[in-house]
Specification:
Structural class: mainly alpha
Number of helices: 15
CATH class: Mainly Alpha
Radius of gyration: 23 Å
Shape: globular
Low-confidence stretches: none
Order of helices and strands: HHEEHHHHEHEHHHHHHHH
Mean pLDDT: 84
Largest sheet: 2 strands, antiparallel
CATH topology: ABC transporter involved in vitamin B12 uptake, BtuC
Strand order of the largest sheet: 1-2
Amino acid sequence: MEAILLQVLNGLDKGSAYALIALGLTLIFGTLGVVNFAHGALFMIGAFCAVTVQKVLTLSKITLDPVKTDFLGNPLQIKTPYVEGWFGPEFGAALIDWSVPLAILFAIPIMLVIGVVMERGLIKHFYRRPHADQILVTFGLAIVLQELIKHYFGANQIATPAPDVFRGSFDFGAMMGMDPNVVIYPYWRLVYFAFAAVIIGAVFAFLQFTTFGMVVRAGMADRETVGLLGINIDKRFTIMFGLAAAVAGMAGVMYAPINSPNYHIGMDFLVLSFVVVVVGGMGSLPGAVLAGFLLGILESFASMNEIKSLIPGIDQIIIYLAAIIILLTRPRGLMGRKGVMED
């Protein structure tokens, strides 16, 4: 029971990241009909927004302590972050400690601008081109963005810690009447799952209950008819591209403490998330979310030592095996719509 509960928690954690990235991918495909292989790079940029904010907040001035000396007898150098000098030691230290959540405020406008520029500057020229062309150009863009990040931030992982209050673990076992310290789980991973649930719920509520969202959904179903009504649907789709980029960026920001960002983190998630989109059904937002959590839980159970001892390497291929089985039985995916990518 303890092992099952722990693997479910691991699966929800992984599934949250898959679902958030797949949600953005599906938003772009459902509105613009574009297969965006640069979406993983947007997740990566979001993670490095967290890195950037942390680096900026920890910029320090160096002073010499005339009393204390190092082992060579030289005056000891003291680094004092500028934010502590500007806002006081306590508030400045709190800003540094909460740099990851604060990075969301920085990432949202940055990702919106990047999404709009990407759509207006490049993607719009490939709306009516074959999907193979879209994949090639967006994959090339992803490589360019990846190499830019590598150039400016280096090839190594950059630790981006969560706030101190979330660095411990929650004892699920004790809460459920089991032995203590048997089923424990990091607080920040639980925060990430809750964050993903809020973002997914907000996106669905925005599309379902706002006038803007209703027009977008109508445009996804019949773009030409909506255009004949005098609505600038292209402008709204551009905004949706920016929102999808913002969702990917926020997902990357909050994932930074879980997996220290590096320049290829976007590619690591992109392939898996695209499999999630296909399994869920191309163009289906509920399908993308459902498939993300299902495949995350499946991958988590496949990583158990008992399973890997029976089938070595199964944890590396289980998602692809599941995708093959699902697509053989349901060619449109779990919740795919008729006619999507069937021409």
